[in-house]
Fold these 2 entries.
Entry 1:
Amino acid sequence: QPWYSPVLWTLAIEMQFYLLIGLIAPFLFSDKKWIQYLTILLFAGIQFIINDERIFGFHSMVFLIGIVGFLKYKEKINLLEWLIITTLILLGIGFKMELTNTKFIALPITICLILFVPLKNRFFEFCGKISYSYYILHIIIGGSLIIDFGKNFIHSAFGINLLTFSTIFLLIPISWIFYSLFEVPFQKLGKKINSA
């Protein structure tokens, strides 16, 4: 049974990830290097066993890129360790998932920007807040409702490109509304539960 929206399957993947990361976090942050390395190796190895993309393990190495970046950020691994581990993960991803060149390059560039480039300002903080809502809505509203519907009235290549480009910006206020209505209340509820 296909998902109503292809992006919504990530909610299931995320839930699986949250359950697993809570169990293995003590091993990832262990002061004993052999425990830390073994945990990373086993985490990466899951991807070579699972062939169903609905299961978290199919995507484990993509998540591991972020996990290892976080370990570097928290200074639980040094720069050389981060470089070696990240390179090995990227090779594993390329071998297992056969990523396109664009995606293969995008992963290390993104993590390098996060780790090494200071991008702290109000605009980027705002983009970070609405990013998940934007991601969830970009196919449902951006792809299906706006672009696919718009193609019934716009037939030139320039018009379609302009519609697509405009949709990117139109989704920003829509995502903010979605974030305000759904994400913020549940974030507040989560904080109440944690403090209880």
Entry 2:
Amino acid sequence: EGSVVPPSGSGEASPGSLTGTEFAGNILATAKGTGYLAGGTFFAFACRFVIALVLARGLGAEGYGLYVLAISAAGLFAGVSMLGIDDAMVRYVAILSGRADRDGLSGTLQLGLVVGVLGGLAMGAGLFVCAGPIAEGLFHEPELARLLRLLSVVVPFLTLSSVLLGTARGFRRMGYAAFAETVVQSVVRMGLLVFL
């Protein structure tokens, strides 16, 4: 009359459990994603070191300081322009792709990209217009205005890169995530050296 407990060696798996093959596949995907992120991070640090070295030698300490201020301002404006869209993309892309809801996924991607691009353009324009008051009124460095105007062009690209990063994370495509977060942003920064 007691309850029958199935033997531990039985081949039947509970509905929510993973088989050995699925578990090994998850481990492999996690390891690959970690490798992509580590490689992208190494590339980003190497690029930043090269950029810092070139700028410090070419611009001097004062010029390099102005560049760091301008990059920080561009990053701040790009962060504000995202309005949390990057985090929302991670959550809703993961949920909708798990449900195989193609219509919902398509709408989410379109909305995220449109809001991200429009927000980036608006904040980039804001940085361009406010470059003079920020440079002179806040930092008392009139030379900073030119750099702020130059980097205002980068704000929409930083915003779009972050939205794409959130999308890639939602799809669990860590290789694309590493590419969007580290490689693209590093290449953009190195491209700016031509204009400095």
